[in-house]
C-alpha cells in the first residue's frame, strides 16, 4: 500500500486520461471546474470509468455558491448520490452547512447512508465552516472517510498551520486531503509543514479552442473568461507531483 495518495480533480475525459497517464491514484470527477466544480453527468462518469479503470469519487454539487441548500436542492443531490453509487462510483464528495456555519448533520448522515460502504469525502464546505475542530469531530462520528481542505485559507500553503493541527487531531480516523493551490513545486513543503499524506490538485493547463471563427465580444458565462480557452489536466504536472510523493515513499 502506498503511504501517500495523489488525487486529481478533473472535469473532462481528456483530463481524466492525462491524470491516469501521469500516475494519479484517484480521480475526483466533476463538471464546471472553473466555478469550483459541479455535479457531472452519469454518461461522463461511465466513460471515465471505462477509459481509465481508476477509482472515481464523484462531486455532488448542484450549483455555484454557498453550501446551504434548499429542500429541493437536497432532494436532487440525494438522488444524484444514489444514482452514482448504483452506477459504480467508488466514493461521493459532498458538503452541507447550516446558516450558522456548522455542519448540517442530518443531511451529511443521509448521504453517508446512501453511500453504503463507499467512500465519503466532506469537501471544502469545511473551509468555510464556523469551527473546524468541531466539524472534524462530527465528521468522525458520522463516518466520513476524508476531509478535503485548504486549512480554511485560499491556498493550502497559507493554511498549513491549521492543516498540521487537523492532521494531528484526526488521529488517522479521517484522512486530511490537502487541496487548493497544490502543485509539484510546493508539495514537498506542504508534506513537511502539515504531516499530511494525501494531496488533491487539478494540474490545469490552458488549451486553445479548435474554433477558427471566433466572436470574442459575446460571453456565455463569466465575462472575464474567454469562451475560447479550455482548461485540461497536464499529464506532466501530475507525473511531477507523483515523483515528489515517491521521494517521500522511498
TrEMBL record:
Pfam families linked: CutC
InterPro entries assigned: CutC-like (IPR005627), CutC-like_dom_sf (IPR036822)
Keywords, ordered alphabetically: Cytoplasm
Transmembrane segments annotated in the record for this chain: none
Compartmental location: Cytoplasm
Family from the record: Belongs to the CutC family.
PANTHER family cross-referenced by the UniProt entry: COPPER HOMEOSTASIS PROTEIN CUTC (PTHR12598), COPPER HOMEOSTASIS PROTEIN CUTC HOMOLOG (PTHR12598:SF0)
This protein's name: PF03932 family protein CutC
Gene (UniProt): cutC
Amino acid at each position: 500500500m502506498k503511504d501517500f495518495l495523489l488525487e486529481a480533480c478533473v472535469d473532462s475525459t481528456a483530463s481524466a486520461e492525462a491524470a491516469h497517464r501521469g500516475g494519479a491514484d484517484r480521480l475526483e470527477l466533476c463538471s464546471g471546474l472553473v466555478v469550483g466544480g459541479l455535479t457531472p453527468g452519469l454518461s461522463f462518469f461511465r466513460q471515465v470509468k471505462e477509459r481509465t479503470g481508476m477509482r472515481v469519487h464523484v462531486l455532488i454539487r448542484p450549483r455555484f455558491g454557498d453550501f446551504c441548500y434548499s429542500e429541493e436542492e437536497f432532494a436532487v443531490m440525494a438522488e444524484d448520490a444514489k444514482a452514482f453509487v448504483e452506477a459504480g462510483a467508488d466514493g461521493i464528495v459532498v458538503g452541507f452547512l447550516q446558516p450558522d456555519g456548522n455542519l448540517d448533520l442530518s443531511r451529511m448522515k443521509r448521504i453517508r447512508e446512501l453511500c453504503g460502504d463507499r467512500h465519503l469525502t466532506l469537501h471544502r464546505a469545511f473551509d468555510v465552516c464556523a469551527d473546524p475542530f468541531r466539524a472534524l469531530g462530527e465528521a468522525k462520528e458520522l463516518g466520513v472517510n476524508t476531509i478535503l481542505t485548504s486549512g480554511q485559507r485560499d491556498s493550502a500553503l497559507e493554511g498549513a498551520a491549521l492543516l498540521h493541527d487537523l492532521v494531528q487531531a484526526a488521529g488517522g480516523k479521517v484522512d486530511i486531503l490537502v487541496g487548493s493551490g497544490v502543485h509539484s513545486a510546493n508539495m514537498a513543503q506542504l508534506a513537511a509543514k502539515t504531516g499530511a499524506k494525501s494531496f488533491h490538485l487539478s494540474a490545469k493547463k490552458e488549451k486553445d479552442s479548435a474554433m477558427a471563427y471566433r466572436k470574442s465580444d459575446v460571453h456565455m458565462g463569466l465575462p472575464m473568461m474567454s469562451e475560447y480557452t479550455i482548461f485540461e489536466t497536464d499529464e506532466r504536472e501530475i507525473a511531477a507531483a507523483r515523483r515528489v510523493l515517491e521521494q517521500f515513499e522511498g
